[in-house]
Structure formats: C-alpha cells, structure tokens
Amino acid sequence: MTKQLDLVGPSMIATMLGVHRQQISLWRRKGTMPEPVAVLDGNRPLWHRSQIVKWAAETGKELAT
C-alpha cells in the first residue's frame, strides 16, 4: 500500500495564506520559511501541509483556507 503525503508547493501555500506566490519566494529568500522537505527538479520546493500550518501559527500569519 502506498502512503500518501500531504505536500504543498509555493502556489498552494500562497492560496492557503491569501498572498501572492511572489510573497512565498520572498519569504524563502529571506530565510523566514521552514526548509522544504523535498525539492523536485532542483527548483520546486515542497513542504508538509502541517509544517506550513504550524509555521503560519508561530509567525502570526492567518490561513485563508
């Protein structure tokens, strides 16, 4: 049986937080986001959804969805 992971990329995180995708890139460059759990093709970061929810709560960011 295959285990499914609840992974999200920058576009989904932007939707979750109600911000533009460029904001996610800015937070990554500033080093304020958690490290991604995986990077596909050298430039497509992925995070566990729970990791982003926790980070958002810790930094005072409200979830839009």
* Beginning-to-end CA distance, first to last residue: 30 Å
Fraction in helix: 40-55%
Radius of gyration: 12 Å
**Number of helical stretches of at least 4 residues:** 3
DSSP strand tally: 3
Determine the strand fraction and express it as a percent band: 15-25%
Order of helices and strands: EHHEEH
User: Which ranges are low-confidence, i.e. pLDDT below 50, for 5 or more consecutive residues?
Assistant: none
Q: Please give the order of strands in the largest beta sheet.
A: 1-3-2
Major β-sheet annotation:
3 strands, antiparallel
State the assembly state of the protein chains.
single chain
Task: Give the total of domains.
Answer: 1
Gross morphology: globular
Secondary structure class reads alpha+beta
Please, what is the average pLDDT? 93
Q: What can you tell me about this protein's structure?
A:
- The longest helix has 10 residues, at 21-30.
- This protein has one domain.
- A three-stranded antiparallel beta sheet has the order 1-3-2.
- It has 65 residues and is an alpha+beta fold.
- The chain has three helices and three strands.
- It has helices at 10-17, 21-30, 49-58, and strands spanning 7-8, 38-40, 44-48.
Task: Write a concise keyword list for the protein shown above.
single chain; 65 residues; three-stranded antiparallel sheet; alpha+beta
